Amino acid sequence: MDSQVGLSDADLKDFHVSKHPLILHKLSILRDVNTEPKRFREVVDEITSLLCYEATADLPLSTIRIKTPLAEIDSQDIATRIGLVPILRSGMGMVHAMLNMIPSAQVWHIGLYRDHRTLQPVTYYNKLPDQATVDMCLVLDPMLATGGSAVATIDILKHWGARQIKFMGLIAAPEGVRTLRQAHPDVPVYVASLDSHLNEHGYIVPGLGDAGDRQYGTI
Fold this sequence. Notes:
Oligomer: single chain
């Protein structure tokens, strides 16, 4: 699958597609139409945990002094306040895994839905405080399809005062990548797969269907 057709070098800058064998194996389970919601949620959780390693590999560290059972040593601590921003509702499926990896992270929800006639995002929920309370935001959404919801969310976060933002998803379409990279070239993107294209209804092909419906059994 030549899914990078139409993407420029600028589009692919800071765009990361995982090649980890475990992620590729688990993607097969997600894509399978016969995977039931319970197993689907479990695999979303598992892939998110693996992607978290890759997306946080460059987090800044500070030195702290700790005592082991045998001696005192200089050790490392995360030196940045991290905020998780799941895009409701499908992004919620990625939060549990992220909190397992980063228990101190704050969670802020932004609710968007895609108008099926215009394919444009519509904001219906935003409870961010008046000023940014974190140093880095990780935007969570399983599907980067048209890119509209991701762009709208990052617009909100930048207006809020977020200085560092990364996007984490499971599957992306070239159209969504292009839209996001052109609107926010400073935002790194981490996904498990770059698929072929969007169909006429704005769904990723081959994709896995609607991630929210498949997680919550509302197909």
